[in-house]
Specification:
The complex is a heteropentamer of chains A (241), B (368), C (371), D (281) and E (293). Helices cover 40% and strands 22% of the residues of chain C. Chain C contains eleven helices and 15 strands. Chain D has 281 residues and is an alpha/beta fold. Chain D has two domains: 186 residues, Rossmann fold (3-Layer(aba) Sandwich); 77 residues, no CATH class. In chain D, the strands form two sheets. In chain D, strands 7-8-9-3-10-11 form a six-stranded mixed sheet, with helices on both faces. A five-stranded antiparallel sheet of chain D has the order 2-1-4-5-6, with helices on one face. In chain D, helix 4 runs parallel beside helix 7. Chain D is globular and about 55 Å long. Chain E has a domain of 201 residues. Helix content of chain E is 73%, strand content 4%. Chain E has eleven helices and four strands. Classes of the chains: A alpha/beta (241), B mainly alpha (368), C alpha/beta (371), D alpha/beta (281), E mainly alpha (293). Chains in contact: A-D, A-E, B-C, B-D, B-E, C-E. Chains C and E meet through helix 1, strand 8, helix 6, helix 7 and helix 8 of C and helix 1, strand 1, strand 3, helix 9 and helix 10 of E. Bound molecules: adenosine-5'-triphosphate (ATP) (2 copies) and magnesium ion (2 copies).
Chain lengths: 241, 368, 371, 281, 293
């Protein structure tokens, strides 16, 4: 991956009080593509995304977005640049209603929200039904939908998602991946973390495999899907059908 | 982490106790010269008990209670009422007289202290039932409120013939021996440590960590919270009783919110969740307040009087130190660790070793 | 105020403890007392024993108006090797430290602690002021002499001074004017600043006079709020009220309040008093204080005088029991009059000064004595 | 009566206007592995919370080994709001607290891991042993229950070995990797000596390899430890492979029940939950 | 009890309640966002009293009042920056303890700087105008306090429920990190909270001390504690709740004293709190805490 890199990370190292979570990774996300980051638990995937979003401080390295260095910037500077993270574990605002959660997704914007809301409700009709409900009382899946919807409200150029399918029913998982594709087709670049490597690699243009803080492998989605060692480690044995 | 063998530890512990006893004996024998130091040590020991009791609740069970002053008041009044010599009572209750039932109710100090604990524990039982259903800050405020209610009752003219209301109680006989303060305190703390090390102590910690999960593990929340609360109240009551004996005269004003905050600050200074921390904290804090008295007196250096030094400055310095601990040394002295001979040994080994020889990289890593 | 010796030869020092609150609830009054003691130390910096001159060093400790602190503060004085103690403002802390001083065989002379419990049953505690039962009776007498038939009393809960004095007043007033003459007894909490509700109750009971012994912190509040509610009857207080703070804070509303006190600067009772008044006013100015002499300063001064007289009489720098014994027989002429102690340790005083406030100044009204 | 371990009859759980569980009846027989599946928000976790006493149901009854452990009927404000039909049928109100229910032999794990985060792995398991302790506060304090304590420690250690966590025994539980935390949660649940184990999405956050290991382990629970297992899971591979029977919930209602084979081919379930299997696995 | 006495008590209670309400709002706002009992709030209120004393010494009251408001706001924000901000990620107990520490520090500092002696609070002439209706007698501030309280609260509710910053405040109150991910500047939002809280404390301070006339270093302690109770009573986090809680306490306390039970007036504050917590653990208007397991 070399051409028209949109987000480019090089030599990124992140530590949590001595524990090395990310040990010098480099990766590229080209404009308009879907890039996925797969890997086992604790590999440092979430940390990478959180560093890009600015909520975690990097030890060294560089993250450039559209030619601008992101390291050292605060999240409230990064979000207006068009980078939005759907955090791991939903993290909806439990004490705000569904509608307010969506509105706060567009906090950095000053435009009218009606069209964006309509689009989100179109993608997630369930949210329309629960518009009035406090987000904290939604079920896990409903919260996940809300988290994605909220991220879309910020009109991101680069949408980063941290395990959006976690705890979702297969039907919804399929929907989520379809939605990711739809979003991407609308021109939004996507950086995706998934445990569900199977699904993720299927829609991804490019994939990275991360293990204990380093990137061990990369390739197109199809290449990785076909790779034997990946099949063994991340895809599990295929169900005979 | 190197470990010392069991025998060495026992020898060291015994040696420590012997040194402490000898030290105290020396101070006691020269009382007139060291009465100030002894009184600070005594007060520290008393505060250590209530600090550990608070820690048992706050640091180990996760129940943030701010009712210490109230329970200490219960203990203090119990001991005071029961130990004031019968012949002095008329003089003490000089305005309104003493209730008939109490006029001749006398107990020896040790029995009064136990009763102080029991009364406080009983009050804890009554109060705990409604209040322990509350969480964190709400519990803190509710217990703080109870402490104020207790104080209001003590000062109430309606109870004059029992508590002597506004006039307070005096003529409380002091400790028969210095060793009694330290002995009782040590015993109380030892008992609490044993409780914490038992399965019940683990259950308390489980509640601190996650109530829902603890309940799902078959731990009866209300029973165990109640238990922790009552235990804590018991020892708080005993320490309140000792405080009364230490002070020799008490009134409701001695048990204001400030007392609770003092105890809280001791717990914080020592480390929330560390028994030894609370004990060190109690000694350090009590002594610290006295050392800092120096700031209250005008300081004259070479005929020039340093402007800041005047009365009240000590408390400013003291609060600044406390803020500094909370802000920059958040875990307090001990964090959640406990004093151990292994810890001391390793500390010494590391520091002395570093001075003598260049450590191998591996050595350093292991210690980090 | 210590250590300013100019002598070349090695100074011989004898230490006297000053056990006073300079912070906490009574910090204000305590400090005024300390000033009196310090000034006395300036006037009489030495004492002669066996032909040797000893410099007196004051060891000041702050008992913070707190009984627990009082214990350590008292022990501190003992460890410092003081031979006698002066203090404290606020009877509570004096009572707290009393047993400790007694056990250390250390004589203590309270300047302004008026509670009977300070000296009762304590062979080592003395005082140079009068007592609350006396003061309560004085005020009741005064009220009745001035035509009051009914009275209301306001006292502070948990405060032995206020409650005690109030209770003595009630007893005396009911004795003199007939049972039930005290038509309203109200209490307030420590740190309370809103007295409108209790004052409304008092207003409803329509007394001829209000007696409100209280600290200087609360007194102005009670006075001002009473006037605001339209209560016009005289308001009376105890010795604590003789303090410029009250006039300062209660402003015009302080006019006409009545209080009893130990001392009056306009009526110097003795020669000592005359020189004290001029000298101490200068000292107050030097220390950035108001130029009104608080009675507690005068008492502090007198307490100092009795202590050095006793030391001189005892002729010892170490034997504290001898100093105590000497105190029993001491007789000095101080600022507040002649002072000698009875068998309990209380000064033989039978006279109180009644004052009022007029044109923003304390004004002497009369002296009252009761048997 | 004891041919069922767990029996739910007409259980309804209403939160304000939302009916999370609607008239659910189901049973679990000894030695079975039963799965509950269903779309998000179907009420699966809520059902678990009712069974374990975290929520008091609006209506219905739960019995365990034939003994009624929970029984309720709409009361107070709920009487008016209640949408179901069984008003007054279960007039006796029985609401055991979660700890009582655990003592009776129902243990659970949580959808969002709830370990005792600051305690070590070993302590996490040891705490679960507390509930069966015979010693009172006094004898425990004075260490009079030495043998019992030793026994508790030994049993806890055995459990850690079974779950392959023995080497991490002194680590702080929250420092474990996610998969191990999930396993520790199971170990902790098993330490209460349950006869019925409730697992809420045990494979969530696990990769396929780990999921496979978990599958094998749940199998072992049944074969080796003769435990009855009721679980919620979204990983269809796992569910279809080890479940004896499956209940499918949608909008709080039971929409289907049967063996994995039956469920996979149930058109209703495919529409509501599984979706059309385009990839053929 | 005569009707006049009753009315007089009622007036006292409402006025006291109004002052409590203003302070209680400061607690509720900070608690709502930081989950922090800002123990120092009562002392900020006390410091505002001293600021007024010094400001009025050199300026006419209409200049002094804005100075006091600004100084108090600065103090509030400064405290937040120094004592709370570094503890953002610390356990809740640490930050609560830090608050107790600040409170302690302010009290000691005030004692050191201004001595323990009470200082007379300057009277703003028009506030102190005494009016008389029949037997009733009160100063104007007694009436102004509750009215001003209600007006301010109305404005505040508008701010929180219908402005962007208000929504941001509520979001921040739940989750710092995710709020950051939404592009919210959390430090700014928290500062705004302290600005508003301190402003109300300053206004409350002017009204309260004008009515009670003296300031001393511990003036803030008891009102502070009571106002926190008022906030809890109304349901912490809820502004209308804080107001109603303030009035309940003000009236209740006055009623108790009026009936001759002044011994228990403080105890009443806490007793009513405990009773309330037992029956409605989240207070009158408290947000329902959904503990979804
Ligand atoms: N707040 C923290 N403090 C200390 N260590 C942390 C923290 N968060 C993560 N770590 C450690 O950093 C490493 C990587 O964590 P991270 O959450 O980024 O992993 P991940 O690849 O996203 O895993 P997962 O599959 O769980 O999402 C792990 O070893 C983890 O224990
Ligand atoms: N405490 C509550 N208050 C209000 N509604 C609730 C509450 N708990 C659950 N619900 C509602 O009940 C429904 C079922 O929730 P539940 O969490 O049981 O679903 P689930 O099937 O476990 O979903 P998921 O797979 O996402 O965890 C949801 O619509 C949710 O909004
Ligand atoms: Mg992750
Ligand atoms: Mg669920």
């Amino acid at each position: 991956m070399d051409t028209n890199s949109y987000l480019s990370i090089s030599g990124l190292k992140v530590e949590y009080g001595g524990i090395k979570a990310v040990k010098g990774i480099s990766l590229e996300v080209p404009k308009g593509k879907i890039v996925t980051l797969i890997g086992s638990n604790g590999a440092g995937k979430s940390t990478t995304l959180r560093t890009i979003a600015g909520v975690v401080k990097a030890k060294e390295g560089s993250i450039r977005f559209d030619g601008v260095e992101l390291l050292g910037k605060a999240p409230d500077d990064i979000v207006p640049m068009g980078i939005t993270l759907v955090p791991e574990g939903r993290r909806v605002f439990a004490n705000l209603t569904v509608l307010e959660n969506l509105k706060i997704g567009a906090y950095v914007h000053h435009h009218k929200l009606d069209d964006d809301l309509a689009r989100v409700f179109e993608l997630f009709p369930r949210l329309k039904e629960r518009e009035w409900q406090l987000a904290g009382t939604l079920s896990g899946g409903e919260q996940q939908m809300l988290a994605v919807g909220r991220a879309l409200m910020s009109r991101p150029k680069l949408l980063m998602m941290d395990e959006p399918s976690l705890g979702l029913a297969p039907l919804i998982v399929k929907d989520i991946f379809n939605i990711i594709k739809t979003i991407n087709e609308e021109g939004i670049t996507v950086l995706l973390i998934e445990q569900n490597a199977n699904h993720a690699l299927k829609i991804a243009d490019w994939g990275y495999v991360m293990e204990t803080g380093v990137i061990t492998m990369q390739g197109t989605g199809a290449e990785l899907l076909a790779n034997e060692s990946i099949k063994e480690a991340y895809l599990g044995k295929q169900k005979k059908s | 982490m190197k470990k010392l063998d069991q025998k060495t530890k026992i020898i060291l512990s015994v040696a420590l106790v012997v040194v402490a006893i000898l030290g105290l004996s020396y101070l006691d024998a020269n009382r007139s010269d060291y009465s100030y130091a002894l009184s600070i040590l005594e007060r520290s020991a008393i505060y250590a008990v209530v600090a550990v009791a608070m820690n048992l609740l706050t640091g180990f069970t996760g129940l943030f209670s701010l009712g210490q002053a109230g329970f200490m008041a219960i203990g203090a009044y119990t001991v005071a009422i029961l130990t004031i010599p019968v012949e002095s009572r008329a003089a003490v209750y000089y305005i309104n007289g003493i209730a008939d039932g109490l006029a001749n109710a006398y107990l020896p100090l040790w029995a009064a202290l136990i009763l102080a604990g029991i009364f406080a524990a009983f009050m804890g039982l009554l109060i705990g039932y409604p209040v322990l259903r509350l969480k964190s800050d709400y519990l803190a405020i509710a217990t703080l409120g109870f402490s104020e209610i207790i104080r209001a009752f003590i000062a109430a003219p309606q109870l004059d013939r029992i508590t002597n209301g506004s006039y307070g109680l005096k003529s409380i006989p002091g400790f028969p021996s210095t060793f009694m303060v330290f002995g009782v305190s040590a015993l109380c703390i030892l008992l609490m440590v044993m409780i914490l090390r038992s399965s019940y102590g683990r259950a308390f910690k489980a509640i601190r960590e996650d109530e829902t999960a603890a309940e799902a593990m078959g731990i009866n929340l209300s029973k165990h919270k109640q238990m922790a609360f009552v235990i804590s109240c018991f020892f708080t009551g005993v320490s309140g009783g000792m405080l009364a004996v230490y002070m020799r005269s008490i009134d409701s004003k001695s048990f204001q919110i400030g007392l609770t905050f003092d105890i809280l600050l001791i717990v914080v200074l020592g480390g929330i969740g560390s028994v030894t921390g609370s004990v060190f904290g109690a000694f350090l804090m009590t002594a610290g307040r006295e050392w800092l008295r120096f700031f209250d007196n005008p300081l004259v250096v070479g005929g020039f009087s340093v402007p800041l030094f005047r009365s009240g400055f000590r408390m400013v310095i003291f609060s600044l130190i406390l803020m500094a601990v909370v802000l920059y040394y958040r875990k307090g002295l001990m964090g959640t660790r406990e004093f151990s001979w292994d810890g001391i040994y390793n500390f010494l080994r590391k520091h002395l070793y570093l001075r003598w020889r260049k450590p191998s990289g591996e050595e350093v890593k292991r210690d980090v | 105020g210590s250590g300013e010796t100019g002598g070349e030869e090695e100074p011989k020092v004898i230490k006297i403890g000053v056990f006073e609150p300079v912070t906490g609830e009574n910090g204000g009054g305590g400090f005024q007392e300390v000033l009196g003691i310090r000034y006395a130390n300036v006037v009489y910096p030495t004492v002669d024993i066996d032909g040797e001159t000893y410099t007196i060093e004051l060891v000041e400790v702050d008992n913070k108006s707190d009984k627990t602190e009082a214990v350590t503060a008292a022990q501190r004085l003992i460890s410092e090797g003081v031979v006698a103690v002066i203090g404290s403002y606020g009877s509570g802390v004096s009572i707290a430290a009393g047993e400790i001083f007694a056990e250390a065989n250390l004589a203590a002379v309270a300047a302004s602690a008026t509670n009977p419990q300070v000296t009762a049953g304590n062979d080592f505690y003395f005082r140079v002021c009068f007592l609350d039962p006396f003061q309560g009776t004085v005020m009741a007498n005064y009220a009745i002499q001035n035509g009051a038939k009914t009275a209301a009393v306001i006292t502070q809960l948990g405060d032995d001074y206020s409650s005690g004095l109030g209770s003595y007043f009630v007893t005396a007033f009911n004795d003199l004017a007939g049972a039930g003459s005290v038509v309203s007894e109200q209490q307030f909490q420590t740190n309370q600043t809103d007295f409108k509700a209790i004052l409304t109750n008092i207003k409803a009971s329509n007394p001829d006079v209000i007696f409100a012994p209280s600290s200087i912190t609360t007194a102005p509040l009670i006075i001002k709020q009473a006037r605001e509610l339209g209560i016009t009857v005289p308001i009376m207080g105890g010795d604590t009220w003789e303090n410029a703070t009250i006039i300062e804070n209660a402003g015009a509303d302080a006019e006409g309040i009545v209080l009893s006190t130990f001392f009056d600067e306009a009526e110097p009772a003795t020669d000592e008093a005359a020189s004290f008044i001029t000298g101490f006013k200068e000292y107050l100015v030097e220390n950035n204080q108001d130029e009104i002499i608080p009675a507690v300063s005068a008492l502090g001064y007198d307490a100092y005088l009795t202590v050095i007289a006793a030391i001189e009489a005892a002729g010892t720098t170490t034997d504290t029991v001898a100093i105590r014994d000497a105190l029993k027989g001491v007789s000095v002429v101080g600022v507040t009059g002649a002072i000698s102690f009875n068998e309990v340790g209380d000064a033989n005083k039978d006279m109180a000064f009644i004052k009022t406030v007029e044109n923003g100044q304390f004004k002497f009204l009369m002296t009252v004595s009761v048997e | 009566m004891s041919d069922t371990v767990l029996n739910l009859t007409d259980v309804t759980m209403q939160f304000g206007g939302v009916i999370a569980v609607n008239n659910l009846s189901m049973e679990v027989r000894p030695g079975e592995i039963v799965a509950i599946i269903g779309p998000n928000g179907a009420g699966k976790t809520t059902a678990f919370n009712v069974i374990t006493g975290v929520y008091a149901p609006t209506n219905g009854e739960v019995s365990f080994h034939g003994e009624t452990i929970i029984s309720n009927h709409p009361q107070g404000k709920m009487t008016k709001l209640y949408a179901g039909e069984h008003l007054g049928k279960y007039d006796k109100v029985i609401q055991k607290t979660p700890d009582r229910i655990t003592k009776m032999g129902i243990a659970r794990t949580f959808q969002n891991i709830r370990l005792f985060k600051d305690l070590t792995v070993f302590e996490n398991v040891l705490i679960a042993k507390h509930m069966n302790m015979r010693a009172g506060l006094f004898s425990a304090t004075c260490m009079l229950n030495h043998n019992e304590e030793k026994e508790m420690r030994q049993q806890s250690m055995e459990l850690l070995e079974i779950l392959d966590l023995a080497d991490t025994k002194d680590e702080i539980s929250s420092s474990l990797p996610y998969g191990k935390q999930r396993r520790l949660e199971i170990a902790r649940a098993m330490a209460t000596n349950p006869s019925l184990l409730l697992l809420d999405e045990p494979a969530a956050g696990m990769n396929p390899q780990e999921t496979n290991d978990l599958t094998a382990f749940i199998h072992r629970l049944k074969e080796e430890f003769h435990l009855t297992v009721l679980m919620i899971e979204h990983h269809m591979n796992l569910v279809m492979e080890i479940s004896d029977r499956i209940y499918v919930l949608d909008f709080g209602k039971l929409i289907a029940t049967g063996t994995p084979g039956e469920i996979q081919n149930n058109q209703h379930v495919i529409d509501a939950y599984l979706g059309v299997d385009e990839d053929g696995h | 009890m005569a009707i006049n006495t009753l009315l007089q008590h009622g007036l006292t209670g409402i006025s006291l309640g109004g002052a409590y309400a203003l302070i209680a709002i400061g607690y509720t706002m900070v608690y709502g966002i930081l989950r922090l009992i800002n123990f120092a709030h009562g002392d900020i209120f006390m410091m505002a009293g001293y600021f007024m004393i010094f400001a009025i010494a050199s300026f006419p009251w209409y200049v002094a009042v804005p100075i006091v408001l600004i100084a108090t706001i600065l103090l509030g924000v400064l405290i937040e920056r120094v004592a709370y901000k570094p503890l953002r990620s610390a356990p809740r107990m640490s930050i609560m303890i830090s608050a107790i520490g600040v409170s302690y520090l302010l009290q000691n500092l005030a004692t050191y700087l201004f001595t323990a002696l009470p200082r007379g609070y300057p009277s703003i002439p028009f506030l102190k105008k005494i009016f008389q209706i029949g037997e009733l007698s009160a100063s104007l501030v007694t009436i102004i306090t509750p009215v001003l309280t209600l007006v301010l609260v109305y404005l505040l509710i508008l701010l929180i429920n219908h402005s962007k910053i208000g929504m941001a405040m509520r979001a921040v109150s739940k989750d710092f990190e995710t709020s950051q991910l939404m592009g919210i500047k959390i430090n700014q939002v928290i500062s705004v909270t302290f600005v508003v809280g301190s402003l109300l404390a300053a206004i409350g301070s002017i009204l309260y001390f004008t009515d009670r006339m003296t300031v001393f270093p511990f003036s803030g302690m008891l009102p502070g504690l009571k106002c926190f109770v008022a906030a809890v009573l109304g349901g912490i986090g809820s502004i209308p709740g804080a107001v109603i809680g303030g009035f309940i306490l003000g009236l209740g306390e006055t009623a108790l004293v009026a009936m001759g039970y002044s011994t228990f007036s403080d105890a009443f504050t806490f007793a009513i709190l405990i009773v309330m917590l037992l029956f409605r653990p989240t207070g009158l208007f408290g947000e329902k805490v959904t503990d979804k397991v």
